[in-house]
Amino acid sequence: AQSVTQLDSQVPVFEEAPVELRCNYSSSVSVYLFWYVQYPNQGLQLLLKYLSGSTLVKGINGFEAEFNKSQTSFHLRKPSVHISDTAEYFCAVSGDTGGFKTIFGAGTRLFVKA
Amino acid sequence: EAGVAQSPRYKIIEKRQSVAFWCNPISGHATLYWYQQILGQGPKLLIQFQNNGVVDDSQLPKDRFSAERLKGVDSTLKIQPAKLEDSAVYLCASSLASAGLNTDTQYFGPGTRLTVL
């Protein structure tokens, strides 16, 4: 069975500091990987996705993620965070076989402090 | 471009009552999803439509939940009767489904927060 584990439920960080949000997945088939962000009282919004090709993926708002097949990870990074990055971040996985629905992790709450 | 619209935004009901949620996807999006997001968890897919056909409803509690997308555009999700454990945010999302279902970006609505007392 496929699964997604977000290793940190909450990550507090000071403004302008770097941040890494960790995501590990398990799957027996080739995967597609996503990071979504959810701001308070809003729906989820795509930050970036990995489908194929370069393992370093750049997204919106200065975020990037690296696909590591050997470690089955897809960690999200930003070199310098802003107060406005405070939100819930979800890692998600889908597969290239029929019937493989998108599975979301439990989320990581990023809290940026001044 | 208008986003995914959902209504109502909030709903409070008592257990054993029924409730319905409405979703209007982005124009031209063939695929529509309903997710349940319980507090502290990630979204869980309840049902996925491709146009007006069901692609996946394996996690939909069919004894109490139903969903339809009659004309391949907007959709309703109904719970009857509601239980306490149905308290959650119900998210609707849509995708273009032009490049393949599993690679598509999903666009989410703001959700309906349901509280069952």
What does this molecule look like?
The complex is a heterodimer of chains A (114) and B (117). Chain A is mostly beta strands. Helix content of chain A is 0%, strand content 54%. Chain A has no helices and 12 strands. In chain A, strands 2, 5, 6, 10, 11 and 12 form a 6-stranded mixed beta sheet that branches. In chain A, strands 3-9-8-7 form a 4-stranded antiparallel beta sheet, with no helix packed on it. The model of chain A has no long low-confidence stretch (mean pLDDT 92). Chain B has 117 residues and is mainly β.
Major beta-sheet overview of chain A: 6 strands, mixed
Number of helices of chain A: 0
Mean pLDDT of chain A: 92
Helical proportion of chain B, percent range:
under 10%
Bulk shape of chain B: globular
Strand content of chain A: over 45%
What is the overall pLDDT average of chain B?
A: 92
The low-confidence runs of chain A, each spanning 5 or more residues with pLDDT under 50, are none
Oligomer: heterodimer
How would you describe this structure in keywords?
heterodimer; A: 114 residues; mainly beta; six-stranded mixed β-sheet; four-stranded antiparallel β-sheet; 12 strands; 0% helix; globular; B: 117 residues; seven-stranded mixed β-sheet; 11 strands
Provide a quick synopsis of the model.
With 114 residues, chain A is mostly beta strands. Helix content of chain A is 0%, strand content 54%.
